[in-house]
Write a structure and sequence with these properties.
The structure holds two protein chains of two kinds. By secondary structure, chain A is α/β, with parallel strands linked by helices. In chain A, the strands form two sheets. An eight-stranded mixed β-sheet of chain A has the order 6-7-8-3-9-10-12-11, sandwiched between helices. A four-stranded antiparallel β-sheet of chain A has the order 2-1-4-5. In chain A, helix 7 runs parallel beside helix 8. The two termini of chain A are 25 Å apart. By secondary structure, chain B is an all-alpha fold. Chain B has a two-stranded antiparallel sheet with strand order 1-2. In chain B, helix 5 packs antiparallel against helix 6. The longest helix of chain B is centred in the middle third of the chain and has 36 residues. Classes of the chains: A alpha/beta, B mainly alpha. Chains A and B meet through helix 2, helix 4 and helix 7 of A and helix 9 and helix 10 of B. Bound molecules: adenosine-5'-triphosphate, iron/sulfur cluster and magnesium ion. The site of magnesium ion has 3 residues of chain A, from helix 1.
């Protein structure tokens, strides 16, 4: 992406690629989304997302329900399914352009270099197959192990993710395990081939607080051990504070603010982000889709306001907000899409 | 599969069978004097009395019932006075023909129905899908006697490429098997399709894709075993109707099986034979039900393993 000066704020705020939307100058990013839009033939669901992720980095995607977090993740993995598709933009992963690969080429990447952990692990596991077989399958598929060897490795993985009595658990069916255990199975499956990137879509939301903390610790520890990068989708800013290197805040299909975790928690700029932070202090229901501190609800994708989509709920909305604000850098560590963030800051 | 479960199901099957047998007894007594039904109207009274004593019909009903049950236990299903041999022999001699027709049709229509349903679900909205839907509506709404006669008109009389009646060669089997199987294939296709559509939308199918599993493997290893669970019910119904379902088709194509025998036996008031066939039909249904239960357990670990939650 070229450096394009924004006319109104020339000199103070600039579009950058090596700024907050991506890691600062350093290694080639592992994953890069360039102007990715997702939608059906009728509506745009995610628009113009730029993101990048360095090896080993943890990026949190936050935002209310329906703002496009899951679709962004799926787009990054090339996992969208009809009628939803990637309408524009490109995705690069480890030097390849994923968005140009065929389904067969993608199959070789999925589960091996990129793997995904879903919200409801019990539903995400096949109810009629033994969990051990479901984990071993990945190893047979991507590493060419025999079933026997794959099962032995699956047992080792179960042990690694803290499943007690792994040999016996291999033979269990998902309905025989608790939600937390199933999430551990999913994690074992996701880590089986030591992926470069883990996409965890609300991996802890369905779990009780204690289990949630255990799973988070586990993910972080395994991430350190394997050096995998992670995209972690969550509603819970507490979780974000705990694990994120960088945070992208989404609202109604767009990234409205992206910053290093430190910068974001120190100085949230976008009125929506501020609203989220306020909720965090006042409301103890992190998984609830609705935010009490921000009046109103997210507009459905089909009825989005033309300018800033947050305008109807925004305390700082002005006439200029009828034009869509661009995502512009504020300092080196932060970028915000809001007209109220002027050159003065 | 626990032995307790098997025993329970077997006991229930036996109970069903016992009720069916009792039902047959009651119906036959309610229908009037069996001798009047069996013997010509102008039979002299002393002959009737002779038979009444011979068959034990002069005894009180409870005793008749016990004798009847006792006979069944010993394999005595009554005497076919048209064939002048035990009714069981008459019925058994027809079983191979019915099984040949019924099983051929069952196997072929099941395979066609499953494949058509799976393909239709995978290609939802396509021409193939619409063809499968049309076929299953056709199979559902076309009365089999009409389809049979239509086929006889076309293939046996107009084009003369298939024999219209009887049994003997593989060619004889074609039209009856198709006539018998079309409805079932349609029903199985419809069930398989909707069951597959539901399964394909489940989160675990997305997981399989995210794991990099090739599409063919996803369908066969992840989708089909789940989709098969509700389809088993339809297959069980079809299996239960294996014998009773052939009546019309065997009559249209003069196929010498049980269905045809039933029609003749009813016409000739050969009560022992009718009774034996009814019991046989009940037995088939009980066996089919049992098979469905076993298949459920085998396909769905959630039923089998209920109650041993582990963490
Ligand atoms: N197949 C689809 N067809 C039409 N719209 C869709 C489809 N899938 C998702 N959407 C819409 O796209 C928007 C974004 O969905 P997405 O699942 O990415 O939200 P999310 O941020 O992950 O929300 P949540 O927190 O509830 O998981 C939602 O408004 C949703 O209704
Ligand atoms: S652009 Fe305007 S409406 Fe949108 S968040 Fe900023 S101030 Fe609020
Ligand atoms: Mg989501």
């Amino acid at each position: 992406m070229t450096l394009v000066d924004d006319i109104s704020f020339a000199g103070t705020r600039r579009r950058t690629s090596s700024g907050p939307t991506g890691p600062a100058v350093g290694p080639e990013p592992l994953l890069r989304l360039e102007g990715v839009s997702v939608g059906t033939d009728r509506v745009d669901l995610v628009m113009d997302v730029d993101l990048s992720l360095a090896p080993g980095e943890t990026l949190c995607l936050v935002g209310e329900s329906g703002c496009g977090k899951s679709l962004t993740c799926l787009a990054a993995m090339g996992l969208l399914s009809a009628p939803v598709r990637c309408t524009s933009g490109r995705v690069h992963f480890a030097g390849q352009e994923i968005s140009a690969l065929t389904e067969t080429q993608l199959q070789a990447l999925r589960g091996r270099d990129i793997s995904m952990i879903f919200q409801d692990a019990t539903a995400a596991l096949n109810p009629v197959r033994r969990v051990g077989d479901q984990v071993a399958e990945v190893l047979v598929l991507h590493e060419g192990l025999t079933c026997h060897a794959a099962r032995a490795r699956a047992a080792a993985l179960f042990d690694m993710v803290g499943i007690p009595d792994p040999r016996a658990r291999l033979r269990a069916y998902p309905h025989e395990l608790s939600g937390g255990m199933n999430q551990r199975v999913m994690i074992a499956m996701a880590l089986a081939c030591r992926p470069k990137l883990i996409v965890a879509d609300e991996a802890t939301t369905a779990l009780d607080v204690t289990t949630q903390a255990q799973i988070l610790d586990l993910l972080r520890q395994l991430q350190v051990e394997t050096g995998a990068a992670m995209i972690f989708v969550t509603h819970d800013l507490g979780v974000v504070a705990e694990i994120a290197d960088r945070v992208a805040v989404m609202y109604s299909g767009r990234i409205v603010e992206v910053a290093t975790a430190d910068a974001l928690f120190e100085a949230p700029r976008h009125p929506y982000t501020r609203g989220l932070m306020a909720c965090r202090l006042h409301v103890a229901t992190p998984s609830a889709g609705r935010l009490a501190a921000i009046e109103g609800v997210v507009p459905p994708p089909s009825a989005r306001p033309a300018g800033c989509a947050f305008a109807p709920r925004c305390p700082k909305a002005e006439a200029v907000c009828a034009n869509r604000p661009a995502l512009l850098g504020v300092g080196a560590a932060q970028a915000v899409a809001c007209h109220s963030i002027g050159p003065a800051r | 599969m626990s032995p307790g479960f098997l025993t329970l199901k077997l006991l229930r099957g036996l109970l069903t069978l016992f009720l069916a047998v009792t039902f047959v007894f009651v119906i036959l007594r309610l229908a009037g004097d069996p001798l009047r039904l069996m013997l010509p109207d102008d039979t002299p009274p002393d002959v009737i009395d002779h038979y009444r004593q011979l068959y034990g019909l002069d005894r009180p009903l409870p005793e008749q019932y016990l004798r009847y049950l006792q006979g069944l236990m010993q394999g005595d299903f009554g005497y076919s006075f048209r064939d002048r041999q035990p009714a069981l022999d008459t019925v058994l001699s027809r079983i191979p023909a019915t099984l040949l027709l019924g099983l051929t049709s069952f196997v072929v229509s099941t395979l066609i129905g499953l494949v058509a349903g799976i393909v239709a679900a995978l290609r939802r909205g396509s021409l193939v899908d619409q063809a499968v839907i049309s076929f299953s509506i056709f199979g559902h709404s076309m009365p089999s006697f009409f389809l049979g006669i239509l086929m006889i008109l076309l293939f046996a009389m107009t084009w003369r490429i298939l024999p219209s009646a009887g049994m003997g060669s593989a060619a004889h089997l074609v039209m009856p098997a198709i006539t018998l199987g079309v409805g079932g294939a349609g029903a199985i296709a419809r069930f398989t399709r909707s069951s597959m559509l539901e399964v394909l939308n489940q989160p675990y199918m997305k997981t399989a894709r995210a794991k990099g599993v090739p599409v063919a493997t996803r369908v066969l290893r992840d989708a089909v075993p789940n989709a098969a669970i509700p389809v088993v019910t339809v297959l069980g119904l079809r299996m239960g109707g294996l014998i009773s379902g052939t009546v019309v088709v065997e009559t249209v194509f003069a196929w010498p099986g049980i269905g045809q025998l039933l029609v003749t036996a009813v016409g000739q008031r050969d009560l022992a034979v009718v009774q034996t066939i009814v019991i046989l039909v009940a037995l088939t249904m009980v066996v089919a039900n049992f098979a469905v239960d076993v298949a459920y357990r085998w396909l769905d670990p959630r039923i089998a393993g209920a109650g041993k939650e582990a963490t």
